[in-house]
């Protein structure tokens, strides 16, 4: 019996080994087929990546780390090597070509980097604060402006014998001034951190001056003047000094030049009494304004401010009006400053609050070889701005100003529509 069993095993053993060899060969064949299929997929993916890389847009400067509103504007941020190694960036940003970049590693112990400014925070910042355009971006800005100013003055010319008993003339003046300006502006990013701008305004003005004199009876006189035409064309250039590294604000220097293309006050016609027949649409003088502005993000707001000096260039009028010979006229220069903050409520709507003040020095005029000076002016206004982002190319901005000093206009409203190309 034992011998029979051994003989059976001896007969079956070669068959089992043969079956195992066949199963192993089938497994190896399947693995080889899978490897070949995976290799074909990898080759196809590499070909697709190469095709996409050939048609991809050119790389942009990675230091453009800030995107503003739909006007295609931003701030050029120059980050140092140490900051790049530390990974001190707190939010994902947009590059100038609109591609999103994921946030790098965040240093939990490092303070938030001040150069990270969101597009919503910058949208409602007033027009006078510099926000640079990205290189190669053209922004056309169409704006409409309305300014309202009124003044009342009561003058007594005579003597007062006892309180309440006056002998002379009482004169009351009321002046209402309305000004409308439509401006076409274009800004272009020349290079990283450098921007150029040109502005062409069309001005409409209307003044109504009412004078009431009380003698034996009231005498009322009303003068209604108006004027319209091209105003003073302006050109400006701005340069970003730094990128806001090491916790510093972002500083931007600017230089603006104002021409005398508008009709000045000495260019209009006057009657035999020296009264103008229409209103001027320009100042009649060239001017240069250097300025420095700053942006300092403080999440969730961004603080802004500016300091400027506007210098008028004197001009020899050399003209006679009535019996008065007008010689050299030097309009008063102006020192301006502003401060405020912008705040984003959601990805589309933002607002800003601020205050601006201008000190205008006296104007010097030579009249019949006698130099006379006017009074200096203090012009202060509260600012309130709103912005709504319609799309990546269009936005709607509104800015209000309310005068708080005697020399300031009562109110000013500016509606702007920036369009990015």
From TrEMBL:
Secretion signal span: 1-19
Keyword annotations: Signal
Pfam families the UniProt entry points to: Phenol_MetA_deg
Region Disordered, residue ranges: 93-112
SUPFAM superfamilies: OMPA-like
UniProt keyword annotation of Signal present: yes
InterPro entries: FApF, OMP/PagP_B-barrel
Keyword Nucleotide-binding: no
Top-level taxon: Bacteria
UniProt name for this protein: Transporter
Source organism of this protein record: Brevundimonas naejangsanensis
